[in-house]
Structures are given as structure tokens and as C-alpha cells.
Amino acid sequence: MSDLVENDTSGKQRDTLVMSGGVALSIVPILWSVLVPPPHGFTPEMQSVLAVFAFSLVLWLSKAVPYVISATISVVLLFALGGVDTFQDATIGFASSLVFFLLLLLLLGQAISKVDLDAWFASRLLSAGGHSHRPIRALSGYMLALSFVMPSAVARTVTFIPVVRQMTEAYGLGHDSDFERTSFLVLGHINPIASMTLMTGGGMAIITSELVQSEIQPITWVEWATLMIPPVVVLYVLSAFTAERFYDARSEVEDATPDDTSPSQLTDDLEVTPDFEFSHDQLIVGSVMVSAVVLWIIGSFIGIPTIVPAALAVGVLALPDIGIITADDVSEVSWGILFVIGTMFSILHAMETTGTLTYLVDLITNMIPFGSLVYWQIVAILLALAVLIRVFFSTASAAIIVVLPIIIRFGETLGINRLYLALSVLLIVGSTTILPFNTTAVLLSFDRGPLSKIDVIVFGLVTMVYAAFVIVFAWTIYWPLLT
């Protein structure tokens, strides 16, 4: 017990030291902007914008203060230091449809969890798992299916952690069994990959689609699905197939379920109700979500903005006679990530208008001999840069909002297909987890499951390599067939 208390205390001290260091380091670029004359080729506005950008990144990476506070301070500094002319210009990122679209999808995700639709899927998995000698495949399949109606990978992980524990007990396996270790790899590493299939599938896809539409070309819900579902499913299946064999979980399950153990007995052990039916609220939420998907599909052909079906769905679920989405649900939204996105868009807009982004891209282009490289080598370097930056972020969404605009600008300068490049960045960033904190779903699996740091790193590298192969396939064969 004393060892646990001592470790907890040392962990808190380490976190406090990191946060204090983050605060101190974040002040440095601000002092540089105020006290040091602009370097050669820089205007005062460019210096101020770059200083606020560095200030924001340090605070977000160190998590020294809540995201809402650091984002608000960044917006104020953007105006106060002269990076933009008016405070309205400093807050222009919050006018992006992405902020409101993500808010609506977060509310819809909460509604799904609130009425236990995720639990309904979980019960189906328990029932299927009790009748199958390959429950890992059942788990992977249900996670993929659920991603089409439940955007949050974290919510899916939280929902299925107790499911995995019940299945482990039903098969008579231990907490450190190969089956449970493999299952937590599926929950942490593979589950978030499924969120990239749809434009409305989660923060990563939403941010990427918004940047594609604003920086490259219009893209509809159906066009995104056509471009992304096959590559993502291939990546997902490869990763799930590998996970099943990572610890030989299949053999362990077969040995743990002798022939005289009937499927019905396993189902009884799992406490599943075979005739589980939808409740009234579940029917409402399910119908609304299906209607939203239908509107997204129809809207792709007749020009309905993607945000409209989401707004209608939230409006219906918030009606007084329905009352599934309430004021309490609004207060529980992840406002921090919404503020980060709004602030980052404001900073990016300022970097565009002041010429800061062009200056940085030109500077790096002059440092790296892109002119002597062939096409695929340039793409590989840009994707490697995206992976390098991604490692420092605790969520893929935050990494994409920072790195993708820069990569897109490189693509424009170097003559690279920017649409393919943006989708490739999403695939590689969304599939790369080197450290447990890089992805919230992985962190939950690492914290609550039997995974070690080596497990996280090795399998994270496996999914990254698979993503690279899928990108080559999509870039050279699949995407050219569609565009």
C-alpha cells in the first residue's frame, strides 16, 4: 500500500513539474515577440502570430491549464500583440462550421449513450461471443459496425471494457490472459481507426473534411464515404487479424471452451437477455440517427450542407415532448477541444493573412532538397513529418488541426495531389500511437487492461506500417479510379 501511495505522489509531482515547466516555457515566445525586433523577412504581425502559435502549442501539449482557458488567452493575445487588427479577427475561427458541427455530433453521441443504445450493441456482442469460438472477430466486427452510428471512439471503448471483462470471466480466463490482452488492443488501437470511415465519424474525420473543403475542394458525405470506407476497412481488418494472432488468443479461447460447454450456458454466464428489445427512447434515438444518415446521403446529391441533418437531429431530440438531449448534456460536452479547434482556426487564419504560413513553408522547403527528390519520396517525407508532430499530441484530432494545414501548403508548393495528401495524413495520424497518451482510447485500455508500454508501442508501430501500405494502395490504385 505504501508503494502505491508513493508512486501516486511521485506521479503527481512529475505532472506538476511538467505543467509548471509548460507555463514557464509558454511565456518565452511572448517575451520574444514583445522584446526582440522581428528577424529578417518577418513583419511585426508575423512575429506576433508565430509567438501566439508557439504559446498555444506549449500549453496544449503540457496541459498546464484547462484547454478552454489556454485557448481564450491565446485569442486575447492574438489581438493584444497586434497579430490581427480587431478582436473579431482573433475570434474568426469560432465562426467555422466545424466547431458547431462537432458540437452537434458530440450531443448526438451523448444521446446514444444516454439511452443505452451502445449497451444494446454490447449485449448483442455478449450473446454472439457466447456462441462463437472467435469472440475477438465478433468484438472487432461490432466495434466497426457501431462506429457508423456512434462517432466517439472513446465512448465505444468505455462501453466495451466491461463487456470484455464479462467475456473473459465467461471463458474462465485470467485478467492477464492472451484473450483479454488482444481484446484491449482492439479497444484501444483498432477501434479509433473505424472513426475515419465517415465524414461524421469523429473529430479526426470532421476536422480533415473541413480543411479539405476550405483549402482544397468541396467534398460531400457520399464522396468521403466512397473514398475512405474501402481503405479504412482494409486497414481495420488487417489490424484486427493481426491482433487476434498477436497473443494467439484464438487458441486460448478454443482451449477454454470445452465441447461439453453449450453456447446457451455461456450466454447464461454472461447474463445476456436473448430477447433484448429496444426501449421507447432507444427507438427514437435510433430513428433520428438513421434519418440523419439518410439526409446526409440525399444531401450529397441535392446540396444540403452536412451540418443541417445534425442540427435537425439534435433539435428533434431536444424537443420538450422528447427531452432526450437536455441542458445537462450541453454542459457535459467537451468544450475544451471545441475551444482548441476554434482558436487554432483563428491562428491559422492569421498565419494565412499575414504571410506567416507561406514564410515557414518556404523556409523549410529551402532547407530540405525537395527539388532533388522524386514524387513518392516527397510524400513519404511529408507523412513522416506528420507522424513526428503527431507523437507529441494526446489526441489525433489536435495533431491534425495543427499539422494538416501545413502539410497541405507543402503539397500546393511542391505540386502534390492535396486531396490524396490530406486523406493520407488522416490515415497515418489516426493509426499511429507510439505512447499511451497519444490516443485517449489507448490510454484507457492501457490504464484498465493488462497491456504493457511495449505492447502499446509495438502494436502502434504495426498499425502505422499497415496504414503506410494502405496509403500506397489507395494513392496508386483506388483513389485514381474515383477522381
Automatic annotation (TrEMBL):
Sorted UniProt keywords: Membrane, Transmembrane, Transmembrane helix
Q: Does the keyword Transmembrane apply?
A: yes
An annotated GO cellular component: plasma membrane
Q: Does the keyword Protein biosynthesis apply?
A: no
**InterPro entries tied to this protein:** SLC13A/DASS
Pfam families for the chain: Na_sulph_symp
Q: Which GO terms describe its biological process?
A: phosphate ion transport; polyphosphate metabolic process
Please report the record's description of how this protein sits within the membrane: Multi-pass membrane protein
| GO MF | phosphate transmembrane transporter activity
Its localization reads: Membrane
Residues spanning the membrane: 16-35, 67-84, 90-108, 142-164, 184-207, 219-241, 333-350, 357-376, 382-407, 419-437, 457-481
Q: Which PANTHER family match?
A: LOW-AFFINITY PHOSPHATE TRANSPORTER PHO91, SOLUTE CARRIER FAMILY 13 MEMBER
What's this protein's name? Anion permease
Q: What is the lineage of its organism?
A: Archaea, Methanobacteriati, Methanobacteriota, Stenosarchaea group, Halobacteria
